[in-house]
Design brief:
Helices cover 93% and strands 0% of the residues. It is an all-alpha fold. 0% of the residues are buried.
């Protein structure tokens, strides 16, 4: 019985690890963004630019990335 459970866990263990790594990476990104956005200098800078300015600045880069990826 124990060997059957060990064999079952052995095959599913890879996808569980991948999911754990992915969720850990997402958590680190969210944590890092929170640290950056908690800085008063960054907040002041973002309030001056506004979200629309950031979006307008990022759209050409995203379009360029998508074109490169489609090649």
């Amino acid at each position: 019985m124990a060997m059957d459970l060990a064999e079952m866990n052995g095959t599913a263990n890879g996808s569980d690890k991948d999911t754990l790594y992915m969720l850990g990476g997402v958590a680190l990104v969210v944590f890092g963004a929170g640290l950056i956005l908690s800085n008063p200098f960054v907040r002041r800078y973002l309030s001056q630019i506004g979200f629309s300015g950031i979006a307008q600045g990022a759209i050409p880069d995203v379009e360029r990335y998508l074109k490169l990826r489609a090649m």
